[in-house]
Amino acid sequence: MTQSRAxxxxxxxxxxSVATGLTVASNYYAQPLLDTIAHAFSLSPGLAGVIVTTAxxxxxxxxxxxxxxxxRFERRxxxxxMTLLAAVGLLITAASQTLWMMILGTxxxxxxxxxxxxLVPLAATLATPExxxxxxxxVMSGLLLGILLARTVAGLLTSFGGxxxxxxxxxxxxxxxxLALWRGLxxxxxxxxxxxxxxxxxxxxxxxxxxVLRTRALLGCLIFASFSMLWTSMAFLLASxxxxxxxxxxxxxxxxxxxxxxxxxxxxxxxxxGKAHLTTTVGLLLLLLSWGAIALGAFSVFALIAGILVLDLxxxxxxxxNQSVIYHSHPEARNRLTAGYMTSYFIGGAGGxxxxxxxxxxxxxxxxxxxxxxxxxLALLVWWRSQRALR
Length: 391
Fold this sequence. Notes:
By secondary structure, the chain is an all-alpha fold. It has one domain: MFS general substrate transporter like domains (Growth Hormone, Chain: A), CATH 1.20.1250.20. Helices cover 80% and strands 0% of the residues. Helix 10 runs antiparallel to helix 14 and helix 13 crosses helix 15.
C-alpha cells in the first residue's frame, strides 16, 4: 500500500461516508416512485418491481466482477472512473421513454455504483486495527443513510419537478462527487500480483475455506432480503387507502429508517471489543420481532414507523458486525471479501424485492409481512445452527 494510515483524517472519513451514501443512493431513488413510474409506463406493480430487481442484480454483478479489481489496481482512479460511469446510467434513466430504456439506465447505474463497496474496504485498510470497526461502522452508516435518504430526496424532488428530475439531479451530483474524490482520496494500491481470473477464482477459494465468511454472507443475504421486502412494497401501501400519501410524504418515511441506521453505528465498536456474537444474536431477534409492528402498519402509521426504526437498526447493526468480523481475516484480500460478501448481500436484496412485489400483488401488506418474518426467522436459525456447530 502506497499511503500511510495517518492520512485517514476525520475529513477523509466524512468524504468517504458521503461518497458511499451518494453512490449507493443511485440504486434506490426509484423505490418510493414505483407507483408513479408504474402509472407513467402503464405497468402492473409486479412489473414495476422489476426495476428494483434490476438495480439489485446489476449491483450484485458489479460487486462480483468489478470490486475485486481494487485488490489489483490503483483504487482512486477506479473509484473516480466508476463514479462517472454511474452518472451516465442516471442520465439514461432520466431520459428514458420506455421501460426497457429505464432498465438499461438502471442496470448501468447499479453496475458502476458499486464504487461504494470499494470505499468501505479502503477505509478498513487505512484504519488502524483498534479503530477499524468504528471506521467501517461510520462509512457503512453513510451507505445505509444513502439507501434510506434516497427515498426522502426522491419524494421531495418529484413534488417539485416530476420523477425525472430526481435522476437529472442525481447525475449532476455524481459528477461533482467524482471531482471531490479525485482531489481528496490518497493513491492506494495493494501489491497483489493475481490476474483478473485469479482474483475471481480466489473469491470462491475464500468461501470454500472460511466458514465464518460463508455464515456472515448468508446472514447478510437474508437480512437485506428482509430490508428490501419492507421498502419495496411500502410505497404501494402508503399510496393506497387509507393513507393515500403523495410521493413527498412517502419519501419522508426514509427519515425514520435513517434514524434507525444511525442508531446502529456503535455496532462496529462493539465488534472491536469482541462482542460480535452479542450484537448479531440480539439484532436477529429484534429483526424478527420488528415485523409484528410493521404488520400493524396496515392501519397505524405509528406502528409502521416503530417497525421501520427497529428493522433498520438491526439490519445495519448486523451488517456492520458482519463486515467488521470478516475484515479481521485476510487483510490483503479485503476487496475480494467485500465482493463475495456483498454479492450475497445484494442477491438477497434483489430476491427480497421480487418476492415483496409479488406478495403485495397476491396477498397485500400482510402477505409481505409474513414473507419478511419468515426470512428473518430463517436468518435466526442459520445463526443458531452455525453457533451450535462451533460449540
